[in-house]
Every structure is written in C-alpha cells, then in structure tokens.
Amino acid sequence: MKKRTRIIAKRILFRGSILLAICGLLYIYFGSSAFSIYEYQLSGVPDNYNQEIVSQIKEANSKNLFYILPGDRIISFHRKDIKNIIKNILPNTDKISFSLGGLHSLKISVSPYVPIFRTDTTHAITKNGIMYEEMTLRSDLPIVQMATSTNVNEKLLTSLADLVPKVNSVLYPVSKITIDEYGDIRLYDESMRHAIILSVSADMKKTWSNIISAIDTEPLKSKLENNKNDLEYLDTRFGNKVFYKFTKHGSTDIIYGLPSTDTNATTTSSTTPAIVQ
Hints:
It is built from six helices and 14 strands.
C-alpha cells in the first residue's frame, strides 16, 4: 500500500471514529435514558407544597426545550419555567438555584425573601425595598405606609428595622410606621395614640441616642414614669432637641414650643438633647 493511500485511510478512519462517537453521544442523550431526570430534590420549600411543585416541574420538563432538545435531561431542562412555577406557587421566593444530585437527580434550592415590615395584611417589604406577597406574615412586624413620592432606600429601611426593637423595649411596641410626602416618619403604637416623629434625613443612631437622653432627663423622665399612657408624641426632627406632648382627659397637658420662644426650655450640653416644654 502506497504511503499516500495509508494517510488517506488513516484520515478516513479517524474522521469516521469521531463521527461514530458523536452519533453515539447523540443517541445516548436523545435516544436513551442515561441522562434523564427521575428525581427532583427540593430544599427550602414547605412540605405541603413539595408534591404540587414537583408535579408541575415534571409536566413542564416533559416538553422539548427549544423544540428540539429533550426537556427532562440534566443538561437541558426548563430552568426558566421551573423558576416561574415555584414563584407562582411560592410568591415569597427570592432566589432559586440548581445543582446536580447525580445523573438522574436535580437539586433545586429555594430561598425566600426576608421581610422587615408588612405593607398590608398579605404583603411585606424587604430591606432592599422589594414588596411581595408573603405566605405567612409575622404578626409582630409593623405595617409601613409610604407616600408614593417618598424616596425610600435600603439604608432608611435598615435603620428603621434596627430602631423598632429599641422603641419596643423602652417605650411601646411599634405597630405602624408612616412616611409622608414631606419626609416625616411616625412610629405608632397599636392604638395610634402614641408616636415618635423622625425625619428621613436623620441619623437614626444619633436620634435614638437623643431620645434615650431625653427620657432620662427631667421633667420628661417623671412624666413617662407617672403618665406614660398620656404621651402623645416625641418629636425628634429639630436637631439636638426632643419635643414632646402629653394629653390627659382630652386636653393638652404639655406641648412643646420652639426653643427660641419658650421661656421654660431646658437646655443641656451638646451631647444631650434639649427638652422643651
């Protein structure tokens, strides 16, 4: 056999082997069940929704992907459709990730949103400002209502989420938070009789420090000890001062006035808020 003939024969054999291997792989993937998904392992999903989700995923994956690829293989499955199925059943879903549990098993991990406040009886909001439908709302989360023109960002929501437990432990349980179009924040109790008034532009840590100093300073300290239920509001919007108002039997007991005009104002050091009555 001539050298040229041997070279041509080797090339044909090599190319034929490659073609045969490709055809074999295509048959294994398309024509056999070697890579078929038989098991779906869900994590982060409530047990009572597991069966429903798996049933819908199997139905979606029974259809071809892009009209050609089998949709129930570990390489080609309906990733987008699976995400939509889970989010439709579990609207509080934040992230969905996929991993392989073997040649015939697909692991699906579901992470829910973490709510910091409620927006109504069925919806919640995250620290990133994402509002969504919650499956089981915690009754201890305050309801927050925001004006449409208010610019609410992650920093503000996180600061409020940190502030609420402090107010709960020292003054009263916060049940409702309102943020109006002027940037004023009000933290109400369940009865809506008591409020702490803040500004969206305030440093919440400094504001809370001012409140702590104020409630530990006379005459506010004694009034909270003796007439806490008569507290109408603590207003922290005016720099290093805390204004307050107490009401009793429908009439005003103490009302804050501006520091420049109130002759009864009590002025403290720069590290302690002025308490004006």
